[in-house]
Amino acid sequence: MSGRVLICDAEFPLPTAREILPQAEAGRVAGAGPGVVALLVSPESPVSAEDIARAPDLRLIATASVGTDHIAVEAAEARGIAVVNVPDYCIEEVSDHALAMVVALRRGLIAGDRSVQAGEWDRTAVGAIGLLAGTRLGVVGFGRIGRRLAASAEALGMEVRHHDPFVPGGMELDDLLAWADAISLHTPLTDETRGLIDARRLGLMRPGAVLVNTARGAVVDREALKAATHVQAAFDNVWERPPGRDLLGLPHLTMTPYVAWYSAGRELEPYLRAAKAVAEALTAR
Predict the structure, then answer these.
(1) What domains sit in the chain, N to C, each tagged with a CATH number?
(2) Rounded distance, CA 72 to CA 191, Å?
(3) Taking the complete model, does pTM exceed 0.85, yes or no?
(4) Does residue 68 carry a pLDDT above 90?
(5) In which order are the strands placed within the sheet that holds 60-63?
(6) Burial, 179: exposed, middle or buried (Cβ in 10 Å; 0-12, 13-18, 19+)?
């Protein structure tokens, strides 16, 4: 297959990618048109149905991410365009980050730091903290990341249960939310999971329960979370980047700047895997 290959993410290592794809060039998704056969993107460079319609020769979209919710997958499939991701990347990183968030909130690290930074020295500011052993952890989405988190949590003595409509042996979601001391979200963002954790379901969580989201922000209803002051929430991926002002300063919400996927020395891996997928597809065709 011959044609133009556009790299549409400024963080994509173009010189390194060209070692795999000599014809690759920097570009923008909006600039893709006739003659473009492949796009290399990331969650920072979404591909809409309109973008796909402007590129009549497009045959492949490769994303340097696990998720594909930033791509109009149905529109691509209708045109016979392959969508490739890196589903086995950052399993360790994301599961470790989720566990760190659970531990930090269950042991009062965030509240303790905020109290000390405010000039206080009061151990009661952290609330009623307890042992990690015996903590009830509910994992929503029991794929590679969710299963690794479960194994790590069980090694610390936590009791783990899960909800996943595609994995047997789990609990109903409402029952899991009511049972758990901490919930960790690992479900992809789809039409079915958008707003999955809404006001009613947040209301099922016990006071002081932890809600960790290293998946996509939109799995949780934004306004409902802002109002759910009875939970302790920690999000790595919110509804927009950077977060809106309405999310700043909420005492029950801790945020990290979309770093759960990252480990020093491995940050180029998803980009190179995406480039290799394009190279293989171009050769095969």
Answers:
(1) 4-89+265-284 (3.40.50.720), 91-255 (3.40.50.720)
(2) 12
(3) yes
(4) yes
(5) 24-26, 4-7, 36-41, 60-63, 82-84
(6) middle
